[in-house]
Amino acid sequence: MPTPPDLTEHPSAILLMGPTASGKTGLALELARRFPVEIISVDSALVYQGMDIGTAKPSADERAVCPHHLIDLITPLEVYSAAQFHADANRLIHAINARGHLPLLVGGTMLYYKALLEGLSDLPSADPALRAQLDEQAQQHGWPAMHARLAELDPDTAARLNPNDSQRIHRALEVCLLAGEPMSRLVARGKEAAANFRFLPLALVPAERRWLHERIAQRFELMLEQGFLDEVSALRQRYPALTTDLPSMRCVGYRQARDYQDGLCDYPAFVEKGIAATRQLAKRQLTGCAVCPSCRSMRSNRNWPPRCVRRWKPSGNTSHCRHHYRIAASIKPYAIMTKARRSGPCSWHSKL
């Protein structure tokens, strides 16, 4: 039997990350039906108004289960940055905690999680003239000599870079010369500005890659049945200035839909490209989960919702399978529950 965690050190928020179509929304809603949580979207596609079907945005009924935040913030013509998410999420976590509720951050935009956990560094933008000057010096003296120059300006950054790592040495020198101070100092300052909360990062990882691919294909077909192409047509008609250069139209599925509507591919090729692009997104998200510090993985599979989650109640017995005990313990300060009891093994989570 696992040792129960120290309930006095409960986190300020739970982070529920994972690849698209892995069941994050379903798990979040299961928790919301049992505990006083408020969901904060960590999805760069859900901020856009009118982009509902292609982003698998939670329905009105689902959003009625508990408060949802950071959804439908801007039009598809506007831009929402990681810095804006960082500020909004910090503000919301404070407000939700003040209401005695638990923030549940749900989504798969790993850049947003990185900004929240590590902070943002205010590095200067690239300067074409300076870059050309550094390139000329590198051709004349070589990258080891440029590395030696970096060691004089920023010893900490130089110490972690290979003397032949031209790309990173180039950028570090550029930042030092533009900012007038070491890049390592700027990066450290950004980390100091990271969210001052106790987080419990959890990753919902499919037990089988084949199952995830099946889910992705089924979801894409369902979106088409729900009128995804009509949604794209309506967006283009409502926003004539909507181009593929905008972040909103770089969302998975939308670029492929535009290509089909513009006659650049036939319907079967559009469906194939849309599913393939979603699989690539899921692969990047899985990689992001794997490198996320202190993140615990939980397995999702065909038998959903998991037995132990179905048994969770705000005032009653609850499972304490290894990872699920951590969630229950995190929520306990916000909802009165009796002592957890062992309810048997659960195939939904990975073994530690």
TrEMBL record:
Keyword Nucleotide-binding included in the entry's annotation: yes
Reaction catalysis annotation: adenosine(37) in tRNA + dimethylallyl diphosphate = N(6)-dimethylallyladenosine(37) in tRNA + diphosphate
Gene Ontology BP annotations: tRNA modification
Binding site for substrate: T20, A21, S22, G23, K24, T25
UniProt binding sites for ATP: G18, P19, T20, A21, S22, G23, K24, T25
Cofactor(s) this protein cannot do without: Mg(2+)
InterPro entries listed in its UniProt record: Dimethylallyltransferase, IPT, P-loop_NTPase
Signal peptide: none
Protein name as annotated: tRNA dimethylallyltransferase
GO MF annotation: an example: ATP binding
Assembly notes: Monomer.
Entry's EC annotation: 2.5.1.75
One Pfam family matching this protein: IPPT
Family: Belongs to the IPP transferase family.
Keywords of this entry: ATP-binding, Magnesium, Nucleotide-binding, Transferase, tRNA processing
Role noted for this protein: Catalyzes the transfer of a dimethylallyl group onto the adenine at position 37 in tRNAs that read codons beginning with uridine, leading to the formation of N6-(dimethylallyl)adenosine (i(6)A).
